[in-house]
Design brief:
5 helices; elongated
Length: 162
């Protein structure tokens, strides 16, 4: 005799939804940072003939055309192993915090809180990069910090129900 079981899904809490959005943003920023053409460049050339010894200076320097454009980070420099691993860590930090929020809401407070704090600290470590910091601090670290604060306050107040 077989019984069909129906799983009852509980609605997601505000903290879980915010953490999910933060994790999605973190991954999107990492992918865009590595593969979107956001790195600008300009190149120009200059040429002049060197005068022989004892001669007066020749014609002035001639400037060639200036070429400007944008390219992705992977086109500009080798990305493996660095900065690929750093961007991977900074991009996945909100996902670690999301797992922590899910655990905390389910009642595993110590493990969940530890993962949330680890996610925030990993996202904050992007401050060491002059190139990535301006992208990751406002778009990855701050949402992860706000999400963690929401999760800590909401689960404290409601007794891990959210």
């Amino acid at each position: 005799m077989r019984r069909d079981r129906v799983a009852i899904m509980r609605p997601r809490t505000l903290a879980e939804r915010a953490a999910f959005v933060s994790a999605a943003i973190g991954i999107a920023v990492g992918v865009l940072f590595l593969f979107a053409p956001i790195q600008g460049y300009c190149m120009s050339s200059a040429s002049a003939t060197a005068p022989p010894l004892g001669a007066t200076p020749g014609p002035p320097v001639t400037f060639g055309p200036q070429v400007c454009g944008s390219e992705a980070l992977w086109q500009r420099q080798p990305i493996f192993p660095m900065p690929f691993f750093a961007v991977l860590v900074w991009s996945l930090a909100p996902a670690i915090a999301y797992v922590g929020v899910r655990l905390r809401v389910r009642g595993e407070r110590v493990t969940g809180t530890g993962l949330m704090v680890a996610g925030v600290l990993l996202a904050f470590s992007s401050i060491i990069s002059f190139g990535a910091g301006p992208f990751f601090l406002p778009f990855v670290f701050l949402p992860t910090l706000v999400t963690t604060a929401i999760a800590l306050v909401r689960t404290e107040r409601s007794g891990a129900v959210g």
